[in-house]
Amino acid sequence: MPTVRLIYASRFSRGVGPNDIPDILAVSREKNAAAGVTGILCYDPRYFLQVLEGPRKVVNALYNQIANDERHADVTLIEYSDINERLFANWTMAFVRVDDLGNPFMLKHSSNGVFDPFAMSGEQALDFVCTVRELRPQGLDERA
Ligand code: FAD
Fold first, then answer.
1. What is the C-alpha to C-alpha distance for residues 110 and 107, in angstroms, rounded to an integer?
2. Which atom of ligand 1 is nearest to the CA of 29?
3. What are phi and psi of 83, to 5 degrees?
4. What is the 32 CA–ligand 1 centroid distance (Å)?
5. Rounded to the nearest whole angstrom, what is the distance from the C-alpha of residue 65 to the centroid of ligand 1?
6. Residues with Cβ < 8 Å from 81, sequence gap 6 or more?
7. Lining residues, ligand 1, CB within 6 Å
8. CA-closest candidate to residue 39, choices 29, 28, 52
9. Taking a C-beta distance cutoff of 8 angstroms, is the pair 68, 61 a contact?
10. What's the average model confidence in pLDDT over 70-92?
11. Which residues of 10-30 are buried (b: 16+ CB within 10 A; e: fewer)?
12. Looking at ligand 1, which atom is closest to the CA of residue 68?
């Protein structure tokens, strides 16, 4: 079965915040490990940007499940492609707080230094997560 990469953006639902992240990551990592899914969850006080990599059928089903999760809203598909190599093969779900990346990093990836995944093209989102991975090859957190 082909391996695919899917990138989506979403907004936190009202009443959901940083305290919910550890739970989301714990369940994700356990289920992803069993399902052969890898990726990264980028978190900002308003938005999520997530990469899911794995077998096409598994990733498609997971995306539908995640899109129905009421802890976030406006789930928007940004990029989807067949891949030969995973970007995040070593992480069941890497995690990064966008705030920790610093202003110069964000200025490189947006016109005003503000993280807004809804304003990103598929190419820009891919460039963003590739740069995150390169910047922090050992530092991508497996914890919230
Ligand atoms: P159940 O515990 O039976 O959950 C049923 C449904 O209830 C879930 O689908 C969800 O919509 C909702 N739900 C679950 N827990 C809560 C809660 N604490 N508060 C409110 N609603 C809740 N799952 C993965 O397996 N892999 C991922 O990479 C992944 N990434 C995610 C990223 C984000 C931003 C979010 C919000 C969720 C993510 N999830 C991920 C979680 C996913 O949406 C499901 O909750 C999870 O897979 C468990 O589903 P379930 O039907 O087995 O669990």
1. 5
2. 26
3. -130, 155
4. 12
5. 7
6. 4, 5
7. 23-24, 27-28, 31-32, 41, 48, 50, 52, 62, 65-66, 68-72, 93
8. 52
9. no
10. 96
11. bbbeeebeeeebeebbeebbe
12. 11
Q: What is the pLDDT of residues 100-139, one digit of tens each?
A: 887 777 777 777 778 999 999 999 999 999 998 887 645 5
Q: List, for residues 1-53, the tens digit of each pLDDT value.
A: 899 999 999 999 988 888 999 999 999 999 999 999 999 999 998 999 999 99
- The Cα-based distances of 53 to 49, 82, 108, 125, 127 in angstroms read 14, 10, 25, 15, 16
Which pair of structure tokens corresponds to residue 45? 């006080």
pLDDT score of 75 more than 60: yes
| Residue in the structure block whose two tokens are 């899109």 | 67
Pair 23, 78: CB distance under 8 Å = no
For the entire predicted model, the pTM comes to 0.93
Torsion of CA 81, 35, 46, 87, to 10 degrees: -50
Amino acid symbol at 41? L
Q: Is the distance from CB of 88 to CB of 40 less than 8 angstroms? A: yes
- Sign of the four-CA dihedral 55, 56, 58, 60: positive
Residues 6+ apart with CB under 8 A from 137: none
